Amino acid sequence: MTELDAGVIARHVAESGDLGEPARGGPEIGAARRRKEDARLVTGRTRWTDNIQLPGMLHVAFLRSPLAHARVLRADASPALGRPGVVAAFTGRDLAGELGGLPCAWPVTEDIVMPDHPPMAADEVRYAGEAVACVIATDRYKAHDALEYIEIDYDPLPAVVDLTAALAEGSPTVHDAGNRAYVWKFSAGDTEAAFRDAPVVIERAYLQQRLIPAAMEPRAVVAQTDGETFTLYSSTQIPHVLRVMLAQVTGIPEHRLRVIAPDVGGGFGSKLQVTAEEALALLLTRRLGKPVKWTESRTEGNLSVHHGRGQLQRVAIAAEADGRLRGLRVDLLADLGAYLMLITPGVPVLGGFMYPGIYKMDAYDFTCTGVFTTKMPTDAYRGAGRPEATFAIERLMDELAAELGLDPVEVRRRNWIAHEEFPHTTIAGMTYDSGNYEAATEKALTLFGYDALRAEQARRRDRGDPVQLGIGVSTFTEMCGLAPSRVLGSLSFGAGGWEHAAVRMLPTGKVEVVTGTSPHGQGHVTAWSQIVADALGVPFEDVSVLHGDTAVAPKGMDTYGSRSLAIGGVALLQACDKVKEKARHVAAHMLEASADDIEFSQGVFRVRGTGSGTTIQEVALAVFGAHDLPDGAEPSLDSDATYDPVNFSFPHGTHLCAVEVDTETGATTIRSYVAVDDVGKVINPLIVEGQVHGGLAQGIAQALFEEAVYDAEGNLLTATLADYLVPSAADLPGFVTARTETPATSNPLGVKGVGEAGTIASTPAVVNAVVDALRPYGVHDVPMPCTPERVWRALQGGTGAAHRTTVPEGGS
Question: 693: domain range?
Answer without folding.
Answer: 390-480+650-796
